[in-house]
Design a protein that fits this description.
heterodimer, A: mainly beta, seven-stranded mixed sheet, four-stranded antiparallel sheet, 0% helix, globular, B: mainly beta, six-stranded mixed sheet, 52% strand
Chain lengths: 116, 113
């Protein structure tokens, strides 16, 4: 069964450094997402991406964040200058559109980002 | 703005007991509804989903959920829980062609052997 993959599984970085989290969505999906989950808290939406542009983003997704689909397969989340509060599990997801709204989102295994 | 609430933060049951986890959402339009499960250290896994049609949907591992539009609810049920059901459960809503899921805060289920 096709699945979403993410690399690395764990990233440790120092405050102020840039990080890039990578995701390979399911190949025939058209919508791509990033979510984050701070330890012990709920999953929070960051951004959705369709047709090579951001289609929706949350308040969390400020100027420090950016997303890109540099080639036909990878979908990346960049944090320009990490802060301690960026420490979280970051999940990538992808979906294909349904007649009514979005289809099921398939989630990757996540990247645990630790900012020291 | 949409929001999703899950009534119980932590539910503790004995094996073979029946389970019902509450989920309510605040949105008046068309919704797609989901229950995800998250085992420790693993990614979110879909248990079941509702798009349209029969409001009683069946998912994997013996779980089912009922969409009650008048109550804005989508409660998760299982007639007889097992120790292996111990984990975190998240309700999620996608509203009206929106581009994101809104997740509830999660309910931790502990099943005692």
């Amino acid at each position: 069964e096709p699945e979403v993959t993410q690399t690395p599984s764990h990233q440790v970085t120092q405050m102020g450094q840039e990080v890039i989290l990578r995701c390979v969505p399911i190949s025939n999906h058209l919508y791509f997402y990033w979510y984050r989950q701070i330890l012990g808290q709920k999953v929070e939406f960051l951004v959705s991406f369709y047709n090579n542009e951001i289609s929706e983003k949350s308040e969390i997704f400020d100027d420090q964040f950016s997303v890109e689909r540099p080639d036909g397969s990878n979908f990346t989340l960049k944090i320009r200058s990490t802060k301690l509060e960026d420490s979280a599990m970051y999940f990538c997801a992808s979906s294909e559109p349904q007649l009514q709204g979005l289809g099921e989102q398939y989630f990757g295994p996540g990247t645990r980002l630790t900012v020291t | 703005a949409q929001s999703v609430s899950q009534h119980n933060h932590h539910v503790i049951l004995s094996e073979a007991a029946s389970l019902e986890l509450g989920c309510n959402y605040s949105y008046g339009g068309t919704v797609n509804l989901f229950w995800y499960v998250q085992y420790p250290g693993q990614h979110l896994q879909l248990l079941l989903k509702y798009f349209s049609g029969d409001p009683l949907v069946k998912g994997i591992k013996g779980f089912e959920a009922e969409f009650i539009k008048s109550k804005f609810s989508f409660n998760l049920r299982k007639p007889s829980v097992q120790w292996s059901d111990t984990t975190e459960y998240f309700c999620a809503v996608n509203a009206d062609y929106g581009q994101n899921f809104v997740f509830g805060p999660g309910t931790r289920l502990s099943v005692l052997p």
